[in-house]
Amino acid sequence: FNLGGRSDLLELGETALANGVSLCCPGWNWSQTPGIKLAHGTTTLAFRFRHGVIAAADTRSSCGSYVACPASCKVIPVHQHLLGTTSGTSADCATWYRVLQRELRLRELRDGQLPSVASAAKLLSAMMSRYRGLDLCVATALCGWDRSGPELFYVYSDGTRLQGDIFSVGSGSPYAYGVLDHGYRYDMSTQEAYALARCAVAHATYRDAYSGGSVDLFHVRESGWEHVSRSDACVLYMEFSGSAP
Predict the structure, then answer these.
(1) Alpha helices, DSSP H only, in the chain?
(2) Banded pLDDT at 28 (limits 50, 70, 90)
(3) Nearest Cα residue to 41 out of 90, 84, 75
(4) DSSP per-residue letters across 101-122
(5) Is there a contact between 207 and 175 (Cβ–Cβ < 8 Å)?
(6) Which family does it belong to (predicted)?
């Protein structure tokens, strides 16, 4: 770039900078020190049925055996007809959802209409795939309603993009899938869908040590998304298992 009528190259160094536009930075020996590997866990799920898309998640954010937050929200609204579940590194998920919100708003202003759920999933996949191999960890289920009706996509930070009817992501997903595979029907009623989502997350929190807290339930309809409820996971498990007093 040009500065003061001459061209300078940006340089990195600890000392003895060659020009006035170089950057001072510490040495890179810190990368040789092994870091602490923290296990992350969660249970999120989403499924499509005739009355829209259901998204549900637990509220426990953990770092290894430490519960960082017992009441976090793992379902993030993108716009009035689109939201997504978050699994992976919390900071990565929050950052990329803010980026997605901005890009979709710009496209809405440019085109005069909201982008489709498929377009949003393709955009998020393309943006994150450029950072493949840099320890980015985002696994999300995009739930929305557009001109095609209810839509559901799974997007991972390596660029993976899948369309389907049922997705569960996180350390508790094997337990949630067992409940979903047993009880899922596309033509179920709204109350049956609510009960299925609550039951799946509640049973996953009972078996998975990294999931817990409460169960957040969201419903995406043609009119927009709705936060249906936040219920205690332990109480829900006792109700569904028949152990309630």
Answers:
(1) 90-111, 117-129, 173-183, 190-207, 233-241
(2) very low
(3) 90
(4) HHHHHHHHHHHSSPPPHHHHHH
(5) yes
(6) Belongs to the peptidase T1B family.
Binning pLDDT at 50, 70 and 90, where does residue 40 land?
Answer: low
Instruction: Give the burial class of 120: count Cβ atoms within 10 A of its Cβ; 0-12 exposed, 13-18 middle, 19 or more buried.
Output: buried
Catalytic annotation present for 42 = yes
Per the prediction, the chain carries an average pLDDT of 84
Q: Quote the pLDDT of residue 34.
A: 52
Q: Average of pLDDT values for 18-28? A: 49
Mean pLDDT, range 135-146, rounded to an integer: 91
Question: Can you tell me the distance from the alpha carbon of 46 to that of 168, in angstroms, rounded to the nearest whole number?
Answer: 6
Q: What is the pTM of this model?
A: 0.80
Question: CA 224, CA 219: separation in Å to the nearest integer?
Answer: 8
Three-class secondary structure of residue 124 per DSSP: helix
DSSP state letters, 47-88: EEETTEEEEEEE--EEETTEEEESS---EEEEETTEEEE-EE
Architecture of the CATH domain 44-241: 4-Layer Sandwich (3.60)
User: At 214, phi and psi to the nearest 5?
Assistant: -120, 175
- List, for residues 81-103, the tens digit of each pLDDT value: 999 999 888 888 889 999 999 99
Closest CA to 220 of 150, 127, 136, 163: 150
From the candidates 15, 33, 42, 43, which is the catalytic residue? 42
Please give the single-letter amino acid code of residue 38: L
